[in-house]
Amino acid sequence: MQPLSEQERAKAFTSSKKPEVVHRQRLPVRYHVEDFDVGDRPQRFLQAFAAVLKHTNYRLALDHYVRVCAQCARCAVKCQVYLATGDARDVPCYRSELLLSVYRRHFTISGLLRARVLGDPGLTDDSIQEMAEAFYNCTACRRCYFECPMGIDHGLITHLGRYLLSEIGIVPRALAVSVREQLVGASGNTSAVPVPALLDTLEFLSEEIKEAIGVDATFPVDQQGAEYLFLPAVSDFLMEAETLMGNAAVFRATGDSWTIGTGDFDGINYGLFYSDQVLEHVVKKIQAEAQRLGAHKILIGECGHASRTARFFYPTFCGGKDALPVVNIMEYTHRAWKEGRLKLKAGAIAERVTYHDPCNIARSGWIVEQPRELLKAICSDYVEMTPNRRDNICCGGGGGTVSIDEVQPYRMLVGGRAKAEQIKATGAKYCVAPCANCKKQLRELVAEYGIDCQIVGLHDLLYKAIVFG
Amino acid sequence: MESWIEFGRGPLFRITFALMLLGLLRIFVLTLTGVAEAYSRNPDKIVNWREVVKQTIAWLFPIKRMWKQRPAYSMISLFFHVGLLLVPLFLAAHVLLWKRGAGFAWPAIPQRLANDLTVVVIGAGLGLVCGRLLSSGARKLSRRQDVAWPLLLILPFVTGYVCSNVAVGPKAYDTMMLVHVYSADLIMLLIPFTKIAHCVLAPLSQVVTAVAWKFPAGAGDRVAATLGYADRPTWVKESRAPRSVMRDEVSTK
Questions:
Q1: CATH, residue B211
Q2: pLDDT in tens, A166-216
Q3: Out of A60, A93, A176, whose CB is closest to B208?
Q4: Does the distance separating the beta carbons of A70 and B70 come in below 8 Å?
């Protein structure tokens, strides 16, 4: 990868914040934070840490990680941030050590003894500032996890670090404002889309489908007892018309019952990025809507983190094996195609197409081959990025950072640098990125790097290839 | 000096060896019970066990995986580990000590192989230390123990090699043997309390991580309640600061 030039480095790390804000908050990070109590942060951080250890399972992982981490730095070769900056502070095990050292010093017997003997003063405000920067430089993509011989999940440590910071008020304002609107705001979703606007959009999209392909494909709303309750990232209703039309067209072809609920039509869950409490409340909001409508399954649209949070945390927070099944729309479409209920036109897309694996659905091996099989069925020139599948490189906007506009230069020049080179090397005309966050980041990336490639969703292309009986 | 050597490889060895075994057993069992406890805290029992087993085995025998990234470093590290395990356990002189002290033993590796492996361990250990010290990035990552451990680990290898292969005077021999025996005892004593505990804990990493992602239901609210946010969830602005302090924070410069 091309190393950062001095000019690029300066641009990537420049903060747009007013100096008086930095001074008032004593927090020299690039993202904006709502004003919070800055008094005795180390003490409050440790109180939050103690409370989290008391009520959660993190102690198990922390105990294990402090015992086994050899600081061997093999993880460095997998981190797109480190590969761009070359800064040792961006090596995943260095970043994790920031938090592990706090745990070791304040919550283990050996740390407490050591402190007595050596007079270690413990957690300082500087350490909190360093963590506040480091844990939001990481995109929590978990690619480094597969390179750690000790099996340390630095993504989990980043998640915990951000959670603890949020408990003392350090959360990027962009995320906090969205979550507040979703959980206690009037609209109940992260983009503040009111229900009448949603209904107008859906009606418009139905008309568009009719006009474009002559098929009556509707978006059912508040249907009782539907098989699937559909929740895309709410931003899709504002920005991804083609994806949604593709979703509706698939259901028109399969004939299965589905519905969008006006009580909750947002799959976005920023809790994954900074708070277990938020994570759980957003998941339970989906559960409440599914119960209200008597839906049998939860269907998440093309969005990586929304899919992961629903799939892996719905059982966690909503009753284990008795919880409703969670399906991703790509899984659904793939299954329907395999069962012969969805017919696709071979060679419908003549231009070169490549596929970007969103970290949150590919890293676990959950959705890797399904979209590829669908794309190969409709594209005459499909190429892979290198590396790909579970080892794919993060778009650079993961972990919620894509929603933080003030770090955009960093996302372009550092986080997304490797991805831009990857896309460019394919020479593809279309890059399929089935994730709302990835799409936004990649569109900004191709514009920044002048790459002639259109970023689309999987269903954008399927929409052009469905054969109606 | 001879009596000190006898003490080091006799009673002291038995004590440090027992402490090492008990210490490692303790943290292994503690980790396992921690996994069981965390697993039982949540009704969600869905764990991809196949993936856990696959990744665990892949990292226990990383031959195929390691060459893909940083092959030279991987090779040094691998040979270092192989030598560290094989020589102390299968050197003919050590096997003989076991036979003499415990009454049982196992086959030894040829002396020539043991000698070669000892040289490999010493070279690899020094290579690892140099790698850490010569690169400014690696220096920043390294804690004191990360540099000290390879040096401590090769100390019994260096002294053992000299005792076996170099013609030295009796006094120098005894000094070397003394360092050999006591450094090995020290290593065994420290293993359970330091990062070298990965020798028994590494196989549990994958299951620990898999279970750690199972967040107990209601834990977020309980944390908030403990911190006094029961009626003021953390996402509510008013819990942090009055709204009046919010203003445009973007510099116009």
A1: 1.20.950
A2: 999 899 999 999 998 999 888 999 999 999 999 999 999 999 999 999 999
A3: A60
A4: no
Query: Do A145 and A223 share a structural domain?
Result: no
Interchain contact B124–A (C-beta under 8 A): no
Query: Is A165 found in the same domain as A21?
Result: yes
Q: Does B193 touch chain A (CB under 8 A)?
A: yes
Structural domain span for residue A22: 6-171
**What is the predicted pLDDT for the residue at A320?**
82
Residues A159-180: pLDDT tens digits? 999 999 999 989 999 999 999 8
The angle, 0 to 180 degrees and rounded to 10, between the axes of the packed helices A241-254 and A329-338 is 40
Two tokens at A242?
């083609």
| Residue A183 forms contact with B (CB below 8 Å) | yes
Contact call for B245 and A35, based on CB within 8 A: yes
Q: Which residues of B are less than 8 Å from A406 in CB distance? A: 250
In angstroms, what separates the C-alpha of B157 from chain A's closest C-alpha?
21
Query: Nearest CB to A167: which of B193, B234, B241?
Result: B234
Identify whether residues A15 and A137 lie together within a single domain.
yes
Tell me the mean pLDDT per 10 residues along chain A, length 469: 86 87 89 86 94 94 94 89 91 95 94 87 93 96 91 96 94 92 90 94 95 92 96 94 96 96 95 94 95 96 96 91 93 96 94 97 95 96 95 95 94 95 96 96 96 96 92
Smallest Cα–Cα separation from B54: which of B64, B46, B44?
B64
User: Cβ–Cβ of B240/A36 closer than 8 Å?
Assistant: yes
Both A296 and A416 in one domain: the answer is no
8 A C-beta contact, residue A162 and residue A133? no
Nearest to B34 among A63, A156, A365 (CB): A63
A48, A50, A56, A59 alpha-carbon torsion, rounded to 10°: 130
* Residue A180 included in any domain: no
Yes or no, beta carbons of A60 and B250 under 8 Å apart = no
Q: Chain B within 8 Å of A184 (Cβ-Cβ)?
A: yes
How many Cα atoms sit within 13 Å of B50 on the Cβ side?
2
Query: Do A354 and A299 share a structural domain?
Result: no
Residue B235 lies in a domain: no
- Identify the residue among A67, A118, A183 best suited for mutation to test binding to B, counting B beta carbons within 10 A and taking the highest: A67
Q: Among B190, B175, B179, which residue's Cα sits nearest to residue B154?
A: B179
Number of domains composing chain A: 3
| CB–CB contact B208 A64 (8 Å) | yes
Within a domain: A358 = yes
As for the ipTM of the complex, it is 0.90
Indicate whether A181 belongs to any domain: no
Residue A461: CB partners within 8 Å, gap ≥ 6? A246, A348, A349, A353, A375, A378, A379, A430, A432
Domain contains B103: yes
| Residue B72 structural domain | 2-218
Would you call B53 an interface residue with chain A, using a CB distance cutoff of 8 Å? no
Q: Is residue A1 part of a domain?
A: no
Residue B220 sits at the chain A interface (C-beta within 8 Å): yes
Per-residue pLDDT of A262-271, as tens digits, reads: 999 999 999 9
Q: Do both A345 and A331 map to the same domain?
A: no
Per the CB < 8 A criterion, the answer to whether A400 and A306 are in contact is no
pLDDT averaged per 10 residues in sequence order, chain B, 253 residues: 87 94 96 94 87 90 76 88 93 89 89 94 94 84 90 95 86 91 95 93 94 92 84 50 36 38
d(CA B253, CA B250): 9
Domain count, chain B: 1
A187 touches chain B (CB under 8 A): no
Q: Hey, of A40, A68, A279, A284, which one would you mutate to test binding to chain B, going by the most B CBs within 10 A of its CB? A: A68
Q: Which of A287, A315, A336 is the last residue of a domain?
A: A336
**What's the whole-number average pLDDT of chain A?**
93
Co-location of A147 and A262 in the same domain: no
Per-residue three-class SS string for A107-176: HCHHHHHHHHHHCCCCCCHHHHHHHHHHHHHCCCCCCHHHHCCCCCCHHHHHHHHHHHHHHCCCCEHHHH
Q: Are residues A308 and A217 in the same domain?
A: yes
The last residue of a domain, from among A289, A311, A336: A336
Domain-embedded: residue B134: yes
Q: What is the reported pTM?
A: 0.91
